Amino acid sequence: MTTTSSEATPGQDADxxxxxxxxxxxxxxxxxxxxxxxxxxFLGAGAADTPPGDLLEMGCYLGKSTxxxxxxxxxxxKMTVCDLFGSDDGYTKEATKAFYQKSLTRRxxxxxxxxxxxxxxxxxxxxxxxLPELIAEDSCRFIHIDASHMYDDVAxxxxxxxxxxxxxxxxxxDDYRTEHTPGVAAxxxxxVFRHGLRPVMLSSNKLYGTWGDPAPLRDALLKELRGVPxxxxxxxxxxxxxxxxxxxxxxxxPELVTSRHPAPAKSGAVPAPRAAGAGTPAxxxxxxxxxxxxxxxxxxxxxxxxxxx
Length: 309
Ligand SMILES: C[S@@+](CC[C@H](N)C(=O)[O-])C[C@H]1O[C@@H](n2cnc3c(N)ncnc32)[C@H](O)[C@@H]1O
Description:
Layout: E1 3-5, H1 33-43, E2 54-58, H2 64-71, E3 79-83, H3 94-103, H4 106-114, E4 122-125, H5 131-134, E5 140-145, H6 151-164, E6 165-174, H7 182-195, E7 198-202, E8 206-210, H8 214-225, E9 234-238, E10 241-245, H9 287-295, H10 298-308
Parallel strand pairs: 2-3, 2-5, 3-4, 5-6, 7-10
Antiparallel strand pairs: 1-4, 6-8, 7-8, 9-10
Helix pairs in contact: 1-9, 6-7
The structure holds S-adenosylmethionine.
S-adenosylmethionine binds at residues 29-31, 59-61, 64-65, 82-84, 90-92, 100, 104, 127-128, 146-148, 153.
């Protein structure tokens, strides 16, 4: 059964077992500092002059990448997230189901996401193959595919993304070169060679591509990455396409994020000062917000701050 909603699952507030992340690093997941920076760039500075467009994530797990995506939602934009959330039906592989059923629930995702953002995204609880009925053609500016890692599923997800992305939109494909996910590699390069996807950037874990013109994005991103310590970006020519690449190895982790649930002060420590007049601890800028401040031109940063207010 597929359900769609942006309402929190009933009873969430009463569940004291739910996680209370005090920073992004507290959220379990597979989302490394280089990719956090790349998401921030493609959603922020790299999209600064673009009109509103929706965001879509296929496969959110406990919300680590979703939290970062949510930080860059602009006025008039919507984010949709699709996941099976450990359901009994729908996983292509039994072993995958068994793995996620150990740790993943929709309520745990909601608790994590709500620690950083006021409003939940639109949640589609089901297989990604329901998305073509739900997501309008040409409506999205950014899509992250990180759900099933089996070839048939990923190949379909890419075609869903191709139709949902508007001109110049960004597609991110997770695990395009990971040892245990050869099907993702096959579907990814098939999209490049048979369906016209143009790779812009290759990180250790994700391919960032577009069906628009990759050159302006690639050139602007190269300039940006040259300023990131230990990043050493380079361009490699792949079948006539100039593609940017960098390794995540030595990229410094972004500074720790503080959420609505700051970590308790160590005993004996002087409590952190509170903002004047505040009844609750002041919300310090999150790492993703700091990333935005680092990576975005001042105008966009101000717009992000305004939107958050
Ligand atoms: C690798 S995790 C996502 C990680 C997350 N993006 C992050 O950065 O932390 C894959 C997710 O896809 C979900 N999933 C697997 N197969 C799926 C399918 N066919 N449709 C929808 N979701 C699926 C799993 O439940 C899991 O939460």
